[in-house]
Fold:
Amino acid sequence: MEPLKENKMGVRPVGRLLFTMALPMALSMLVQALYNVVDSVFVSRISSVDNYALTAVSLAFPVQNIMIGVASGIAVGVNALLSRALGEKNMDQVNRSALNGVFLAAIGTLLFVLFGIFGADVYMRSLTPDAQTIAYGVTYIRIICIVSFGIFGEILFERLLQSTGRTGYTLITQGTGAVVNIILDPILIFGYFGLPRMEVAGAAVATVIGQIVAFVLAVILNHKKNVEVRLHFRGFRPDWKMIGRILGIGVPSMIMVAIGSVMNYTFNLVLGTFNKVSAGLGEVGKTVFGAYFKLQSFVFMPVFGINNAVLAISAYNYGARKPKRIMQVLGWGVLGAMTLMLIGIALFQLFPETLLGFFNPSPEMLEVGVPAMRILCLPFVFAAPCIIFSGVFQALGKSLYSMLVSMARQLLVLLPAAYLLSLAGDINLVWLSFPIAEVVSMAVSAILMIQLYRRRIKPLYREEVI
Structure:
């Protein structure tokens, strides 16, 4: 049998390798952010009088975020096991990791279908008393949940490509899905070309169609191009031990996303208290907060693209026992993430009115939103190393570290700080909870990274084969 060639993740110069792997990932994530924002831009124009539709889509964000988080968590677990197995030249492990990942994605899809049918109404009523906002939100959530197989399949099969270093193809899948979504958005929302005006439902339908197209493309590209991963379902039985390992890596990632959604949900409740200070102020705050989350994805999504590349390269070289390459990719990853975050800070500081202008803002939204944008961007620079460290934590089997950092930032610090600051009655003070929490997060993340180096990376130097 001909020996398996060394994968590029183990031999190519690290700086160039990270750039070539991260660039298509970052671009594909940027495209992902683009069509998330485009949804909201079109939705904000459903009515020129109020922002019910935009507020509804913003309040639906935690559900959508958890869905993506569960799908990504499964994919992260598969990615880490598969990349490590490649480094060890264990091809049976490679294929079994992929098959069990598909099984888990199917289970995840079923859970969200059930939530969409039975939980959407309860969820929206817990966040707002406004009947129109509730109706829009329930419609949006039900569609994206019931047809969630597209996003689960897309994310998993894209990660299979990323796990073997074929990151360029994810730009094709996500890019095509995004283009389909962007084209369909105005057609379905406003009812062009003789189609009925679907409003918020149209935005949801356009989103799921784009995801399904990306899923189908990802399956085709895996079959045609991903020679190291072969899916044969005949005789497949779930490997519960492997599923446990996938979830052991992926569940902390899911919990991190869930923590983010809990934070988003609870922060919206805190903003709602400002309706007592001034009628409608809390609802305006929720709309601004939703717009911010869409806008910040333009900065964070490319950084998560770098994170994905760092994870794959680190996992491979951990399996191959090459500690120097792990540390090199960590350094390059932090540098790239910091660069993107500094660009993001500059944009939010200099052009907040322009950024909010995409969402058809009312004068009240601008009054609240401009200072909010300038405060909320400040912690970007602290978030950069935390995101990259998180990728290394997951790659080396310490996903729990990532979860601890996320809990410290979003639950233990941010929400208590937001609540205490809200007691002053000034909505501008509430936004300060974000930079406070991110500074704490960076400190915790750095401590855990030092511990990981001492326990997992440093010992490898003694056994490294030169």
Summary: Residues 281-319 form the longest helix (39 residues). Residues 12-461 form one domain. The chain has one domain: 12-461.
